[in-house]
Give the backbone structure.
Amino acid sequence: MTSTALPTATPADKPVRYASFWAGAWRRFRRNRLAIFGLVFVVFIIAIAVLAPVLTPYPYDKINPIQALMPPSIEHPLGTDNLGRDLLSRIMFGARPMLIVGISVNILALLVGVPLGLIAGYAGGVVDWIVSRFIDMFSALPWYLIVLFLVMVLSPSIQNMIVALAVTSWVGSARLVRGMTFSIREQDFIEATQALGLPTPRVLALHVLPQIAPLLLWSFAASIPGIVFAEAGLSFLGMGVRPPTPSWGQMLQEAAGYWQYWPHIFLVPGLMIALTVLAFQGLADGLREALDVNVNV
Amino acid sequence: MISYTVKRLFGILVTLLLLSILTFALTRLVPGTPWGANAQIPLSAEQEAIFRQRYGLDRPVIEQYLVWLRNAVLLDFGRPFTAPELSVTELIGKALPYSVIVGGIACLFALAIGVILGMVAAAARNSWLDNLVTSYAVIIAAVPSFVLAYILAYFFAAQWRLLPSGGWGGPQHLVLPVIAYGLPVTGGVARWTRQCLVDTMSSDYVRTAYAKGLRQVAVIARHVLRNALIPMITSFLPLFPGMMTGSIFIEVVFGLPGLGRYFVQSSSNRDYPLVLGITIFWAVLIMLTYFITDVLYGIIDPRVRITERK
């Protein structure tokens, strides 16, 4: 979303309203208030994560037992945890694993799901049946079943959590791409490419894939909330980000023994998870309207 | 209808077989058991060899799988590494009721609240009430159940001392887990109910029903509800096994002795027979519900039988 390349204001006397598909998309996107909140909050979170070492008032792992479990104060705007560590600093650093996991899982899932979906949807027949059974297998099960199983086998760490989540996440993009490819295959211009004798990989890459691009952009934003939940849940169970590295789920796990003393030690990471999920959902909803993506959710 | 049913059943069996091969292969390909010098249960090399032999881990992997598969079909998933006094099947039988009770009641709670909210929103379409319900639905669905669990426990158990904060006993032990688990689900249920009702209400045959002079009550009861219920039932039925199996986080927070907690425990203990058994058991349960839903869908809605899946 680089706004510099897009016309932000269109003079009323101009006959051509939309310069391009993307300019029109941006105009539609702007109308959705939740989408704008989403965009602003996502940029905010990314800024916090990137600038965490500069912005944080304390090192995230600086222990100070005298100041343990303090309520919010001027020195510690969000209070301190059970070891006296500054919660604001930990929240800011905690945005990093969330974003790293969200982005890398999405990229891995697209790398697997898009080619599989394209091939299954375009080839049909036996290939499609086999891919569909794999899709069935992964989508019939709750994600945490497969992910916990894989994390157990691979041993808990952020890398293995990414691998395990990617194993379950490719299904979504594969199913989307398969469905779209199915309907695109029936269109006239695909028949034309076949009549011209273009090789299939070329047809898929240059003629089918560009049609799916808006869908993929939407699905990138739409799948982040699920991954955020998964990262938080796994880290909460001690199967994800390992201490002392903070992540919001891991902070909740550490808060587990102290929930009865102060609400802020679980409210703040919980609120951050909820706001991030809302922001990405708003962003995804806005993108769906703006890009005119048809998905039966 | 019969060929459709058989085709679906065959697909489910293939999927289950695939899943069992993959999960079994994973547990056998990765080195490491709960035993050994640096593992959870420290044993010498000779003792470890005895254990490996007892659990058949010294045989070829394919033979191990076939033996496991034969036993699994007869509902025998072997004995857990870490608690060999009970079989995996007995352990599942012991822990399952807790998960079924908490998940089932939470699901009923979520459906009751969610459907009512969705109906209110659909009836008051595009009003402030509709906006309020929709905002609630979006926001509540963004809160992880285990965060909500702590918030509820902090106020109701620690501050006001109205309810127990964990454990198992009378109905008062169920209140907080059910609310914490069910409330986030109400969001999705309300939105889907509203969508189904609004879609149906704006369809042509409903307009026709009004045009021919039917009273609103008759239109809603005879035309709207009957058609809107189809997508609702098919989406809400799989919620039950989903929530019965998905109560891991709630069980951990409230210390309930359900299946989810066993799964987490056995995962961190590398107890392969138990994890494998629970995974397959859950998969069967969930896929069976999807199958029943599909067949039910075919019975309720004749259009499905004819068009099937493209």
Summary: The CA atoms of residues 232 and 249 of chain A lie 4 Å apart. Confidence is low (pLDDT under 50) at residues 1-15 of chain A. The two ends of chain A are 24 Å apart (CA to CA). Chain A touches chain B through 42 residues (CB under 8 Å).
